[in-house]
Design brief:
The chain is mainly alpha-helical. It contains six helices and two strands, in the order ααααββαα. β1 (about 80-85) and β2 form a beta hairpin. The protein is globular.
């Protein structure tokens, strides 16, 4: 397989992966989209952040993040708190309900991955994990 064919295969397979991820997110928790799950996970990992930080981190439009955050607030999964260092800034944090839903969905997602990868040799798992980290670490085109 030459480089062009490899890139085409990667693009096709990543599209399939993304479609399956979106579909499985809905099955694991009907009210929690893949984007919402991702945002909740980031808020937990960072112990809260601003909506603009979420948009920048995931390269999403601010209006997209705003809609997602509003839905998470309506579902009482996220709350806004004043930044203790700058009271003009609101920081998003998980509520207790948000933590519980995130934990439930994380357990389900982890089980689904473990089931799908159960027969992979350890070396393949490690290599695949390294490749995903490497791929996702790309900073994007450098601006002059």
């Amino acid at each position: 397989m030459d480089a062009t064919d490899a890139v085409e295969t990667i693009q096709r397979e990543m599209t399939v992966f993304a479609r399956r991820a979106r579909a499985s997110a809905g099955r694991m928790h009907p009210e929690l989209s893949l984007v919402s799950y991702t945002l909740l996970g980031h808020l937990e990992e960072q112990d809260g952040c601003r909506a603009t930080d979420l948009a920048a981190h995931y390269a999403l439009d601010k209006s997209t993040v705003s809609r997602q955050v509003a839905a998470l607030e309506r579902a009482a999964l996220v709350e806004r708190r004043l930044d203790p260092e700058d009271h003009r800034v609101q920081v998003l944090h998980l509520t207790e309900a948000g933590r519980q839903i995130l934990a439930q969905v994380t357990v389900s997602r982890r089980a689904a991955f473990q089931e799908r990868l159960a027969n992979w040799p350890q070396e393949d798992l490690a290599r695949f994990a390294d490749y995903l980290v490497r791929y996702n670490a790309w900073p994007g085109p450098q601006k002059d």
